[in-house]
Please model this.
Amino acid sequence: MAHTIHRNFMSQEDAEAAHGALLAAGFPANALKLAPHRAREQSTTVSAVDNIFNSLTPDDVDRTDERRPRPVALLSVDTLDDEQREQAESILQRHNAIDA
Model:
């Protein structure tokens, strides 16, 4: 059964390495889509809300002021059957993929 897998990557290098490994394993190029995440511009409203929430939370006590790292790329893989899906999952995991 056809299935599409979507996985995020914290580095562009890992995403590109996974993409290359999938191609080397025989996955067709048209079954893969590598898309970088683009940082959204922050509007004045969003900045104001962030500032309000930051002022209401403790600083170093619970680390709420620290920004969490965000994924930099998304790799999607179209698979034809369970065997391909398992093979793709294995390759993605070896290259530090995280759930989308």
